[in-house]
Amino acid sequence: MRVIVIGGGAAGMIAAITSSNEGNDVTLIEKTSSLGNKIKITGKGRCNLTFDGDIEDFKNNIVKNFKFMYSSFNAFSNVDVVNYFNKLGVKTKIERGGRVFPVSDDANEVVKVLKDELNKNHVNIIYNVSVDNFILDNNKIKALKLSNNKIIECDKCIIATGGKSYPKTGSSGDGYMYAKKLGHKIVDLKPGLVPLRSNDSICKLLQGLSLKNVTLSLKYKGGKEIYKEFGEMMFSHFGITGPIVLSASSKLNRVENVDNLMQNSDIIASIDLKPALDDDTLDKRICRDFEKYTNKEFKNSLDDLLPKKLIPVIIELSGIDENKKVNQITKEERKRLVKLLKNLQITITGFMPFDIAVITSGGVDVKDINPKTMESKIVKGIYFAGEILDVDAYTGGFNLQIAFSTGYAAGKN
Q: For residue 63, what pLDDT is reported?
């Protein structure tokens, strides 16, 4: 059988290898001059391959459409992914949060072994060409017309063109145009796993400050919680970023009318700087510090509690005179300080743009895709895999797992 795979990313390469293992004659079309461009930059160039955990962990980390993923994940799970790469010679290790990385910490090693498999399986790879049109016969794929005017006949076609994020890697949203032409509905596209904007002056003041072991909560102005996570984040001139912020953004972009809410300053990020301590314990801790620095001014009493860069900002927000001696600070002022440390608020005004988003939220509506085979229910012989689908997850190797599982299912079938 003649199979064409469009897109040489994680999903496309796995799909092409799997399909060739089934004895098919496979051609892989990649519009740039190299394969695995996005794999090379995942996990800051270290490639967070997958996660260490069970199906419940997978479910809890998928933002939307976990049910759709159930079959393909069971057919090619995170354990299968680890075994697969181990067999290809990529040794793996597990890090904090169950993240799985190559021991080499080099994403290029992952791309190299996949390319080697494609070559070993005699997959024909065409670079620097995109697809112009799909030629159908009786609502079944028959051939593709390429941008160089060549026509390639095929029996099946897998569309694995990626999303709209990081367009420099080649994922500029072509696949959505293809899917639309073929009659598929596209669920609204939004940047996923992306830093959040804020106009609050404290972000600029704290630019470059990284906070570890804090809890970030996204809330509506009224107080209702949207998302909460413990971990690491960072301030930037435009707002906030870092792992827990990226995950929060993928929950936030699914909120109805989110753009209007952000425009009206109705979305608040609340940072608990001391999540391990309740209010009472934190108050006692501050009292101990004040005793230690009893004759010092307030501005010189917080070195044991907070990073240096954060101290002037917290003093300003607390409303306590920085030159006040700590033995003169009232119980009320101390309570105000505790409240501030447990609930440092930042108003969120928007998402950073697609070109720095890790993934795309939204995509081809999965209602029109067979979850076992990834085949279109609209056009026979057309399959979808990877980020083009309306399935996305938080950080931690879950999005690459989605690509591998759906790519495997499409290639197998």
A: 93
**Cross-strand bridge partners of residue 18:** none
| Options 3.40.50.720, 1.10.1740.10, 1.10.8.50, 2.40.128.90; CATH of 195-352 | 1.10.8.50
Is residue 186 within 8 A of residue 161, CB to CB? The reply is no
Return the CATH superfamily for domain 2-190+360-412: FAD/NAD(P)-binding domain (3.50.50.60)
Assess contact for 225 and 232: CB atoms under 8 A. Answer: no
The predicted-structure confidence for 208-238, as pLDDT tens digits, reads as follows 999 999 999 999 998 899 999 999 999 999 9
End-to-end CA distance of the chain: 11
Joined tokens for residue 131: 């697809």
Which letter does DSSP use for residue 297 in this model? B
Local confidence band at 355 (pLDDT 50, 70, 90 cut-offs)? confident
Q: What is the pLDDT of residues 176-189, one digit of tens each?
A: 999 999 999 999 99
The one-character DSSP state at 386 is G
Q: What is the pLDDT of residue 223?
A: 86
Token pair listed for 275: 């999540």
By C-alpha distance, which of 315, 282, 281 is closest to 298? 315
Taking Cα atoms as reference points, which of 375, 369, 381 lies closest to residue 156?
Answer: 381
Kindly state the tokens that stand for 388.
């083009």
Distance CA 81, CA 74 (A): 11
Q: What is the DSSP string of 136-178?
A: EETTEEEEEEETTS-EEE-SEEEE----SSSGGGT-SSHHHHH
Say if residues 371 and 384 touch (Cβ distance below 8 Å): no
The amino acid occupying position 352 is M
Eight-state DSSP code of residue 312: H
DSSP state of 352: P
CA distance 54 to 66: 14
Residue 31 DSSP one-character state: S
What pLDDT was estimated at residue 166?
A: 65
